[in-house]
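#structure-requests
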Amino acid sequence: MKPETIVANLAANGIHLYVNEVGELRHRGKRGQMTEEFRAMLTEHREAVIEWLTTDPGRRLLNDEEKRRIGEVFHAFRDQHGRALVAAGWNRDEVFSGTDPLAVATVGEVHGVIWFLMRGAELAKIAEKAIYFQLVDGSRVAWLRGGCFVSDPYLGELEKTTLAGS
């Protein structure tokens, strides 16, 4: 069984795996959720799961739910805000840097705009020089024309200078 499948199955059952600072595989979840079957699976595949959890997170394969959400978020954003993007002078395809939601396989291939929206961020404003998002924790992020993401506190400084009037 692939380690990403094991991690996804456990997460679907409320068990979240992590590797602590000394390299040991640990889990979080409600008492009783870690069944003997899950324990046996982890014992058998422990090294592969640890390796998968500690490799570059951008190489992590997306699970089926994430793939479904990418398509959903991509199409919703494009369809709901396409006119506003064009009105602000954006090329709608440029916003997603050619992202094909059906071809994305790893976390690193998901465009940042889509990733923020998948995680509950909300579009706050489409302006000529930046697209602003409000994150779940209340912080702000802007995707600047040219493809750079900027967050608070740097965003506040840029708004006073480069993004003034945006």
